[in-house]
Design brief:
This is Ribosomal silencing factor RsfS. With 103 residues, the chain is of the alpha+beta class. It contains 3 helices and 5 strands. The protein is 27% helix and 24% strand.
């Protein structure tokens, strides 16, 4: 996860994850979408879900990029934003709502 707040003005954070195949990318998209929807978070747009090559979920302050390996290498988001502070998503505290456990 990159803190891109100082680098760009459209979002504060980019979450960049890799899927191993089109079905895997689609499954991750569905999982993120449904879990956050249960918490009341709705993305303003989702792009690329049908193709499964690169799915972009725009939650305003947070943009989630789910890419196949080849797309991640080709578009190089890690190179573009590699100088931005990286956040350890596992260290971020999230309040337990129970909604995620049911997913």
């Amino acid at each position: 996860m990159y803190d891109v707040a100082d680098a760009i003005k459209v979002a504060d954070y980019f979450v960049v994850v890799t899927g191993t195949s089109r079905p895997h990318v689609r499954a991750m998209y569905e999982d993120v979408h449904h879990r956050l929807k249960r918490l009341g978070e709705i993305h303003s747009r989702a792009e690329g879900a049908d193709l499964g090559w690169w799915v972009l979920l725009d939650y305003s302050d947070v943009v989630v990029h789910i890419q196949q390996d080849e797309a991640r290498d080709y578009y190089g988001l890690d190179d573009l934003y590699g100088d931005c502070p990286k956040l350890d998503w596992q260290a971020v505290e999230v309040k337990d709502t129970g909604a995620l456990a049911d997913a």
